[in-house]
Automatic annotation (TrEMBL):
Pathway: Cofactor biosynthesis; Fe-Mo cofactor biosynthesis. NCBIfam families: nifE. GO terms for molecular function: nitrogenase activity. This is Nitrogenase iron-molybdenum cofactor biosynthesis protein NifE. Residues 45-443 form the Nitrogenase/oxidoreductase component domain. Belongs to the NifD/NifK/NifE/NifN family. The lineage of its organism: Bacteria, Pseudomonadati, Pseudomonadota, Alphaproteobacteria, Hyphomicrobiales. The keyword Chloroplast does not apply.
Length: 496
């Protein structure tokens, strides 16, 4: 655990973080993490964060060295998509039992599992994840991985990010450290060119990156590695030969971008593919970085021509929604890069932002929000469920955009809700993604179900009974009287 502690200290002493640079030497040495309290990792532990970053590398076998539950709870926890290999969808675990722990069979069982995966699937690499149980009993996964790699002739990568180490975000950074130490730079490509870039922190949720890649292809820009979205092991291993990089989620992988710049002189910038303006700005920044690294300056003119063409098409499509959504109020309960990129995207078509969460946002994210909204009062670090419910039930927002955890608050408040987190079913990146996002918001807000559920329930209505029911006497006259009374009751319910 000594090496893990040193690694944790290193990733929190991040020079690329403005907040960390502003501290004195003593405060910087203490790191940016806060002591964990019970339940603090409910949003995801370090192991979960590492799995999120690495599992979308699609042709790799991901082996979890743990009891069965660790793999069961972390499998497919993001809606990342693959255009080819499906090995990453297969669940591998050593399935440690109490007997294995007591008898010290963990390392032996791990070595055997690596051999079985090699023989059955022959992957280019196997990623081995440490977990709480194996970290506590002291299994040396790094030694086992090194021995197995030598024995079987393939890359076996130890990912030392047990859940007890900290939060999900820490796991993201520890996964990046594993890539830097064992993967990136291990393969020399024979086709490196002046237009190669890396995209870092893009997870290809619902296939979002596939809406952006065609734009780069038209500019002649090749994505050497998209880490981790729809990635291949050899692409990641040769990522050190890219000329520039774009960081989509700096909260997760800023340490990866900064260290790749230090080691291989790959300049990077943080950008977003959400919204028309931000997508255009990202394309410009990519082209400018490539020119600085020696690419032909004519790519700048081609980039501007492509931006003008795509913006015109997107704005034409969005005009159909502007009148229906102008002035609609949105509450954004998410974080990270979406806290400002989606805000900017929605305001472009006249939607009002009544609040946005900045719980997982960096200082740079928060500064961008301030510049966009011009009002700090619309930013909140964390809002309790009862406060969210109160805000929605008082109709201070027409729709809430958030993750699945808070959807039931919106539904209880009888307010439209749209998922924009990792479980979403629609891609929202790029120009076409922006049109799709606005279309989904329009469908949600104007769905007729909301006017129906806000109506009083039939059993809450008090019918105004005007006549006493007829006496239950026999005969045809009594039957006619009952039918007349039933008709009167039905009419009265219609006035509720």
């Amino acid at each position: 655990m000594t090496s893990l502690s040193a690694k944790i200290q290193d990733v929190f002493d991040e020079p690329a973080c403005d907040k960390n640079r502003g501290k004195d030497a003593k405060a910087r040495k203490e790191g940016c993490s806060k002591p964990l309290t019970p339940g603090a990792a409910a949003g995801g532990c370090a192991f979960d964060g590492a799995k999120i970053v690495l599992q979308p590398i699609t042709d790799v076998a991901h082996l979890v060295h743990a009891p069965l539950a660790c793999e069961g709870n972390s499998w497919d926890n993001r809606g990342a998509a693959s255009s080819g290999p499906t090995l990453w969808r297969t669940s591998f675990t050593t399935d440690l039992t109490e007997l294995d722990v007591v008898m010290g069979q963990g390392e032996r069982k791990l070595f055997k599992a690596i051999r079985e995966i090699k023989e059955a699937y022959a992957p280019p690499a196997i990623f081995v994840y440490s977990t709480c149980v194996t970290a506590l009993i002291g299994d040396d996964i790094e030694a086992v991985c090194k021995r197995a790699g030598e024995k079987f002739g393939l890359a076996v990568v130890p990912v030392n990010a047990p859940g007890l180490a900290g939060s999900k975000n820490l796991g993201n950074k520890l996964a990046a450290e594993a890539l830097l130490e064992h993967v990136i730079g291990t393969v020399e490509p024979d086709d490196a060119g002046p237009y190669d870039i890396n995209i870092l922190g893009e997870f290809n949720l619902s296939g979002e990156f596939w809406l952006v890649k065609p734009l780069l292809d038209r500019l002649g820009i090749r994505v050497r590695a998209c880490i981790p979205g729809d990635a291949r092991y050899l692409d990641v291993a040769s990522a050190h030969r890219a000329r520039a990089a774009m960081v989509v989620c700096s909260t997760a992988l800023i340490n990866l971008a900064r260290k790749m710049e230090e080691r291989w002189d790959i300049p990077f910038f943080e950008g977003s593919f959400y919204g028309i303006t931000d997508t255009s700005e990202a394309l410009r920044n990519i082209a400018e970085l490539l020119v600085k690294k020696g690419a032909d300056p004519e790519i700048l003119a081609r980039t501007e021509a492509l931006i003008a063409e795509q913006e015109a098409i997107a704005w034409k499509k969005l005009e159909a929604y502007r009148r229906r959504l102008q002035g609609k109020r949105v509450l954004l309960n998410t974080g990270g890069v979406k806290s400002w990129s989606v805000v900017h995207a929605l305001m472009e078509i006249g939607i009002e932002i009544v609040g946005t969460s900045v719980k997982k946002s960096t200082l740079e994210d928060k500064e961008r929000i301030k510049q966009i909204l011009k009002d700090d009062n619309h930013m909140f670090e964390q809002m309790a469920a009862r406060d969210l419910y109160a805000m929605l039930s008082e109709h201070k927002a027409d729709i809430m955009l958030s993750g699945g955890r808070t959807q039931f608050i919106a539904l209880k408040a009888k307010t439209p809700w749209l998922d924009i987190n990792q479980e979403r079913q629609h891609p929202y990146a790029g120009y076409d993604g922006m049109v799709e996002l606005v279309r989904q918001i329009d469908l949600a807000i104007h769905n007729p179900i909301w006017s129906q559920v806000r109506e009083p329930a039939p059993w809450d209505c008090q019918p105004a009974v005007k006549d006493e029911p007829p006496s239950t006497t026999s005969g045809t006259a009594s039957l006619h009287a009952l039918k007349k009374f039933a008709g009167t009751m039905a009419d009265d319910f219609g006035e509720c």
